[in-house]
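Model it.
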Amino acid sequence: METTMQFSQSVGKRSSAEMHLLLLICVPLVLGEVLPLEPDLENIQLTIRRSANRGDKLQVFQSIWGAIRSDFATDTDKVKGLYSHLGTFIRDEMQCTSGASGRSACELQQEVRRHLRTLMSQRLANLLNAEESIQTYGMYIAASVEPAMVRDVLVNAIEDVYFYRPSDKLVQQLEQLFADRDEVSFRMMIEAQLTLFWRYQAMQDSSESFLFNMAHMVSKIRTHHMYASVDAGLQKRVEALGKSLPPVLGLLFNPQGFCLLSRSDREYIYTTITDEWNYGLNGRQVFAWHEQNYTDSAGLIRAFVQEQHSTPIFTLRSELFKWYFFVDPTEGNRLGALRSGSPSSSSSFWSIAYVEDALIFRQRDLTLCAAEKHDNDRRLVKMLPGQMHTPPSEACQWLPIDCASPK
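Modeled.
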């Protein structure tokens, strides 16, 4: 038959050292239950009678917290266990509004919460600073505490590392929080990116590479199949982030594509349907059409991140027939569209910069520009040297816009 000891009696019968050991080994849960904090090597149990008052139970929680702070202050699992069961105790037995003793229970819970938040955020910050994988620990955090606590941990961890890690690199690191096919970690990753962006905004920082990477991340979040299952409040916050990014980057990463107008002439880049380059590269010609602000499906372009660096390296695809743009050095570095085969890093990979509402496309020391007339209707599009200054001439600045049929 189980022996039940009343807490107040046991205190008088045991030395302080023995009582300390008991507190480290067991934690009372709800009435009549026991939470082991350590393996019960001696099969010792501390049980509070069902008739024990709430004040006695609160005193036990306070004693356990003192023992943890003394000898297990860095043991996240012990602190988390106490925090969890304090929450259950407050919810079921001692509401925060029930008077002075109730406030004491909530004050204890908040003290434990702050310590748990510190432990979790420090561990996450350490992993980020060491450039180690954060996926496993991120899933542990998400599974251990409530969503509000998860956000609190993320805020503290990102604040800790913000001035020690490049912000553009942090975008990539925080993506690791998402484990494939896991909706909880997907939401946590979104929360982390939101936290990072608003920290960047609050610091009034200026980093083109950060904004490129964040715009890319927002595009990946929005187009992910799990995004539809994200709650409306979180989606609203993602949309607010998107609107705070430079609009030119939103268009660049638009999954529906965009058209490009030259700033100098407002003529749009399009891929011809019948004008072939018969030199073995299966090319189609690319021109800028003479009619200002005209766009149609022949000009629809999508940008794809090919390599992830401090700023991404892109390929550009003409969407009408899924042809990738390339540069032909034998034709004066003219822009063309590759009808078949894989895009080459030497001719089809682009670095992209932006100035105000315009994009700038480069390969090595060459810049994509609207060039001389080909005939009365069409202008050549070429890679030109000597345009590495910022901004380059208006002929080398391209305005991304939504494609539409002419009015």
